[in-house]
Amino acid sequence: MDSSQEYRCPVYSSSSIDAEKRAQLLERPVKSSKDILALVSPILQSVREGGDDGLRSCVVKFDRCVPAEDASFPLTLQAPFSDELAKIDPKVKEAIDVAYKNIKAFHGAQMERESEPIRVETMPGVVCQRFARPIGSVGLYIPGGTAVLPSTALMLGVPAQVAGCKNITLATPPRPDGSISPEIIYIAQLVGAKTVVKAGGAHAIAAMAYGTKSVPKADKLYGPGNQFVTAAKMMVAMDSGAKCAIDVPAGPSEVLIIADKTADPVLVASDLLGQQEHGLDSQSVLVTIDCADSYVEAVNAAVEQQAQALPRAEILRKSLSQSFILQTRSVEEAFEFSNDYAPEHLLLYLKDAAKTVELVENAGSVFVGPWSPVACGDYASGTNHTLPTVGYAKQYSGVSTSSFLKHFTSQELSSDGLKNLGPYVEILADVEQLGAHKASVSLRLDKIKREDL
User: Fold this and answer.
1) Among 2, 130, 264, 341, whose Cα sits 20 to 30 Å from the Cα of 95?
2) 15 among annotated binding-site residues
């Protein structure tokens, strides 16, 4: 077989696939949860029971960091971080600064909506309020297995900073020499992080969830990652001993593009490849609307040409076969498939694209029109790129400033308020046969009547 054929997406037509095949296309190319959990569980146990020693052994084994074999090798960096460790190219610094400014502006606007409590007098003398407070200690996972991702440090660190979280910890895989990318350190300085953990994968999640002598325990974990990282997050969230929440199930990256014949095949191909290059378990999907076979062939030809010229061509060669192109006949049919798929990234490459946003029901983030590549949201437009994947956009939202806040409510009743509401509470307590609940109201009503309060 011609090796160039490996740089192509399989093509299907909605008119020729049955319900079973359609259901298969909606599935992601990931291992079963049972298999992943079995692999992750002993890693979590090693860190939970072994603390820093368990973490160190995992850093050596999984991060392939030979210097960590030495017990004197520090597993963390503590603020204030050395400027020498954060020394980066001026052009990179400028790009990070622009991204930081935009992300902070968008997430700061979200915080403005949370700053004032909601106050409602539900009936005379009964006042209910809702307050927002920052989560005290947060753990931010920054992937680094196949690529250094300082953008994720921004996407998680900025809203944590805006929300006012007091203790921000970053975890990211160390380089072979045991160092951390200077871009990550620079961003850690920008967002006010206190600790950087030199670890990746499930063991980094475990260290932040359970805490060790050198790694502060987090109240909530954030960040994307591979299937193992996602499984580790979900497992610690279910462990009552960890007392640790998570943001969203953010696993392997994915994009779905809805395109009509106005879309440039070359640009469409670039967006397909942009997500596919993240890793072997990533997926890119193109859904065309009333496009000829020749258009689809033009897209695949552009994919082939661009892929072979990219630095991560080998990953693309192995992974493109699990992506696909689906030809549909109408806008309605295309959006129905997209909403069932519930993509992490949804790119609308359509005529009058803005008018079609109202058709979107399930998506992590939407990129509207030909001049809105997913890469801009990934890096610097201002929206967050930590988004639900593998269909979880049906239930979850992406990370935002509110992800770093918890909310509590209050209610304050005057004596008149209790006289208004109390009798109804007594009736409902009787229905549920909860006598102590009823008595807590009845005794107060008696006191108010007796003392003429």
Assistant:
1) 264
2) no
Q: Is residue 322 annotated as involved in ligand binding?
A: no
Cα–Cα distance measured from residue 169 to residue 196, given in angstroms and rounded to the nearest whole number: 6
Model-level pTM? 0.90
pLDDT grade for 5, boundaries at 50, 70 and 90: low
Q: Which of 235, 232, 318 is nearest to 282 (CA)?
A: 318
Structure tokens at 8: 């192509």
Q: Are 385 and 151 in contact (CB under 8 A)?
A: yes
Has 278 been labeled as part of a binding site? yes
- Residue range of the domain that includes 313: 252-397
Known binding residue 107? Answer is: no
How many independent structural domains does the chain possess?
3
Q: Give pLDDT tens digits for 54-81.
A: 999 999 999 999 999 999 999 999 999 9
Helix, strand and coil in the chain, % to nearest 5: 50, 15, 35
Backbone angles phi, psi at 225, to 5 degrees: 175, -175
Distances (CA, A) of 161 to 115, 157, 318, 376: 14, 6, 39, 22
Average pLDDT of the residues of the chain: 94
- Please give the positions annotated as active site: 344-345
The three-class DSSP label of residue 5 is helix
Q: Answer yes or no: are the C-beta atoms of 36 and 231 closer than 8 Å.
A: yes
Inform me whether the pLDDT recorded for 2 exceeds 50: no
